[in-house]
């Protein structure tokens, strides 16, 4: 099935795709992780030049390794946008995995058009487009997930019509016991108000930690590979003159 037409999948299509997933040992809490060559995933020759350019500011090898994604995993990529992160997660979950690429139903045409074009990539064959609200991010019949990724989009929910407590509880409920939520976002100054989510497209990481932990998650790891101490946190993230300070945090359902 090609293009964004997958967004119209019904229960039969969902069951068929999930039935093709390899789940032996990969979706059970406590299963030892398989050693994965994440660099080889990112260096795959069929990745586009545009994505490789985007790699320069994303450290995708380190980001993939931090998520711990494994072949056969079931993943939800929140705020998928044009699908850069969704495709990376799909590559990491292959073979045998499935990735839901969530975008809100009212995403702008430039986003939906770019995502539709990306769906023609061979690496997206195990992706289910998921145009659903942030606070109800999965379709009926979706399986328990191994991993949820939420890259550079949590701050946007602070000025949208989104019930963040409901969203965080929905993510918690969607994961299997032992499953992970990995969040990356643009850092605001410590103590900065939630309104910086709109004004600067940044958010104080303490806000995200508090809100996510309130849903029942346990903070288990923090990645410093995208931090920049030179960022003054007092300007919008668009077209920056220096790298933006980015936090990457991992939570677990226990």
How is the secondary structure organized here?
Elements: H1 11-19, H2 38-42, H3 49-55, H4 60-67, E1 74-78, H5 84-93, E2 98-103, H6 109-118, E3 127-131, E4 145-151, H7 164-174, E5 175-186, H8 196-199, H9 205-214, E6 217-223, E7 246-253
Parallel strand pairs: 1-2, 1-4, 2-3, 4-5
Antiparallel strand pairs: 5-7, 6-7
- Share of helix among residues? 25-40%
Sheet with most strands: strand arrangement? 3-2-1-4-5-7-6
CATH topology: Rossmann fold
Radius of gyration: 17 Å
Question: What is the strand content?
Answer: 15-25%
The quaternary structure here is single chain
Distinct helical segment count:
9
In CATH terms, the superfamily is Vaccinia Virus protein VP39
Largest sheet: 7 strands, mixed
CATH structural architecture: 3-Layer(aba) Sandwich
Net shape: globular
Structural class: alpha/beta
User: Which ranges are low-confidence, i.e. pLDDT below 50, for 5 or more consecutive residues?
Assistant: 1-13, 22-30
What is the ordering of alpha helices and beta strands?
HHHHEHEHEEHEHHEE
The beta-strand count equals 7
* CATH class category label: Alpha Beta
Termini, distance in Å?
37 Å
Number of domains as seen in the coordinates: 1
Instruction: Tell me, rounded to a whole number, the average pLDDT.
Output: 90
What does the model show?
This protein is α/β, with parallel strands linked by helices. The chain has a single domain, classed as 3-Layer(aba) Sandwich (Rossmann fold), CATH 3.40.50. The chain is 29% helix and 20% strand. The chain is built from nine helices and seven strands, in the order ααααβαβαββαβααββ. The chain has helices at 11-19, 38-42, 49-55, 60-67, 84-93, 109-118, 164-174, 196-199, 205-214; strands at 74-78, 98-103, 127-131, 145-151, 175-186, 217-223, 246-253. Strands 3-2-1-4-5-7-6 form a seven-stranded mixed sheet, with helices on both faces. The longest helix has 11 residues, at 164-174. The radius of gyration is 17 Å and the shape is globular. The chain starts with 10 loop residues before the first helix and ends with a strand.
């Amino acid at each position: 099935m090609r293009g964004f037409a997958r967004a119209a999948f019904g229960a039969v299509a969902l069951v068929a795709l999930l039935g093709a997933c390899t789940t032996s040992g990969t979706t059970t809490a406590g299963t030892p992780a398989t050693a994965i060559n994440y660099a080889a995933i990112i260096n795959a020759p069929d990745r586009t030049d545009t994505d490789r350019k985007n790699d320069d500011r994303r450290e995708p090898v380190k980001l993939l390794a931090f998520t711990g994604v494994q072949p056969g995993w079931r993943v939800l990529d929140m705020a998928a946008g044009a699908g850069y992160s969704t495709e990376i997660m799909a590559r990491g979950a292959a073979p045998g995995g499935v990735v839901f690429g969530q975008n809100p139903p009212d995403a702008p045409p430039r986003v939906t058009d770019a995502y539709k074009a990306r769906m023609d990539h061979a690496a997206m064959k195990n992706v289910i487009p998921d145009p659903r609200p942030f606070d109800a991010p999965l379709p009926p019949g979706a399986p328990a997930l191994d991993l949820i990724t939420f890259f550079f989009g949590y701050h946007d929910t602070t000025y949208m019509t989104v019930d963040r407590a409901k969203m965080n509880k929905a993510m918690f409920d969607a994961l299997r016991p032992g499953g992970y939520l990995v969040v990356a976002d643009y850092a605001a100054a410590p103590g900065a108000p939630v309104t910086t989510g709109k004004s600067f497209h940044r958010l104080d990481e303490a806000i995200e930690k508090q809100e996510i932990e309130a849903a029942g998650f346990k903070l288990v790891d923090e990645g410093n590979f995208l931090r920049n101490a030179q960022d003054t946190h007092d300007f919008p993230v668009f077209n920056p003159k220096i790298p933006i300070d980015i936090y990457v945090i991992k939570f677990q359902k226990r």
